Amino acid sequence: MSDAETAERIGIYSDYVCPFCYLGRESLSQYQDERDEELAIDWHPFDLRAGKRNPDGSIDHSVDDGKDEEYFEQAKENVERLQEEYGVEMSLDLSRDVDSLPAQVASFYVKEHYPYEQWLAFDVAIFEALWQDERDIGDADVLADLAEEADLDPEEIRAAVDDEEWRSEVERRFDAARQQGVTGVPTFVYDEHAARGAVPPEHIERLVEGS
């Protein structure tokens, strides 16, 4: 068993298509860099596309989820502010038409079958593919490429994405997150306490260390 798998862990509910999840991970990384001991990530999938996903994976923007153009304009401004605050450059501010379900299925499969470090490399690659390279992480070909970069079998990952049982398992995790009261992402969880949003590193420090 690796050191990472026995390390202290922080839970994170997130969705790859959420820019604040990407920014929140950068904030967490900055906090982790200041720690003497490793703080591993216990990732929980969350579905921002619930109710808006067509059978072909396209996103139906006609579904009213309470988010209007004013909401998205404000979100974009907040993303730009946090990029500057955390020193992050992103090619995209928002990603409204990408379906993350295939990526979440692939990531969950890797999390369940491979060492933490290999899952983390794949997870980071998915985030960067979308937010840095503007690649469609809902595309199995893209996920296969990212898998290969993380020393995973690309055909194994393709099979996982197409497997209805794995998709159903991830959808059950979506339901579990809602039942546990998670309403937005990212949500950081540590020792029965939670912080929601792309909070700064010092906020994560308070969550974990209680200082």
Summarize the structure.
The chain has 211 residues and is α+β, with helices and mostly antiparallel strands. It has helices at residues 3-6, 19-34, 69-86, 101-113, 116-131, 140-149, 154-162, 164-179, 201-209, and strands spanning 8-14, 39-45, 187-190, 193-196.
Describe it.
- It is a single chain.
- The protein has 211 residues and is of the alpha+beta class.
- It is 53% helix and 10% strand.
- It contains 9 helices and 4 strands, in the order H-E-H-E-H-H-H-H-H-H-E-E-H.
- It has helices spanning 3-6, 19-34, 69-86, 101-113, 116-131, 140-149, 154-162, 164-179, 201-209; strands at 8-14, 39-45, 187-190, 193-196.
- A 4-stranded mixed sheet has the order 2-1-3-4.
- Strand 3 and strand 4 (193-196) form a beta hairpin.
- It is globular, with a radius of gyration of 17 Å.
- It starts with a helix and ends with a helix.
- The mean pLDDT is 93.
- Rounded to the nearest angstrom, the radius of gyration is 17 Å
Adjacency order of strands in the biggest sheet: 2-1-3-4
Mean pLDDT: 93
Number of helices: 9
- The ordered H/E elements are HEHEHHHHHHEEH
Low-confidence parts:
none
> What summary fits the major beta sheet?
4 strands, mixed
Q: Approximately what portion of the residues adopt beta-strand conformation?
A: 5-15%
State the helicity in percent bands. 40-55%
Oligomer: single chain
Number of DSSP strand runs: 4
N→C terminal distance: 31 Å
Shape: globular
* Secondary structure category: alpha+beta
